[in-house]
Amino acid sequence: MSYIRGYDSESLREIVDEAECRQRLEDIGQQRSLPALLERVWLLKVLGELDEAIALSEQSVRVARMAGTRKDLLRSRILHSSVLIERGAYDAADSELSTCAEEAEGQEWPSITAFALSHRGRARYDAGDADGARSDFKRVLFLRQELSAPDSQLEVAMSMVEAAERRRGAALAS
Questions:
Q1: What is the span of the domain harbouring residue 102?
Q2: What's the rounded Cα separation, in Å, for the pair 157 and 151?
Q3: Tens of pLDDT along 58-116?
Q4: Which residue of 29, 44, 61, 141 has the smallest Cβ count within 10 Å?
Q5: What is the 3-state secondary structure (H, E, C) of the chain?
Q6: How many structural domains are present in the chain?
Q7: What's the distance, CA 45 to chain centroid?
Q8: Average pLDDT of span 20-47
């Protein structure tokens, strides 16, 4: 079940139903499986509970490192970086996401590459690098097209490219 109702056209943040997210957090409780940890991190992040999200995301990276696959570890690191973005640590997130994207691309995991690049694009967008964000979002769109992703995912990627282009245009005009 997706809790995402859309994306804010300016901030590019997920729009969620807060009550549904809080209910899901309650349903998950203190489960310690990696999928449950990752879901809790994401829910805490979108609810703005960043101190708890960062601590839990660090735990999910440790769990993935000890008991998960390489893909699990990459997903955990990407999600951890997405929390760093929300906390304003753009350089740290950009660096980690670049490493994750390179590793995923080297392993020929295009969906994970797209996941990492979409978050790196967000880090760059938030940091004021509209050109870098636009480049990442365009690559995400290309990868998702190659993967025959659902139209909804393609539309999100296109809207992010457009947002970066608007921000770039506004920066050039001022």
A1: 4-173
A2: 10
A3: 999 999 999 999 999 999 999 999 999 999 999 999 999 999 999 999 999 999 999 99
A4: 29
A5: CCCEEEECCCCCCEEECHHHHHHHHHHHCCCCCHHHHHHHHHHHHHCCCHHHHHHHHHHHHHHHHHHCCHHHHHHHHHHHHHHHHHCCCHHHHHHHHHHHHHHHHHCCCHHHHHHHHHHHHHHHHHCCCHHHHHHHHHHHHHHHHHCCCCHHHHHHHHHHHHHHHHHHHHHHHC
A6: 1
A7: 10
A8: 96
CATH number reported for the structural domain that contains residue 133 in this entry: 1.25.40.10
pLDDT at residue 1, as a whole number: 58
Tokens matching residue 45: 């992040």
**Would you state the structure tokens that stand for residue 44, as one six-digit string?**
């805490």
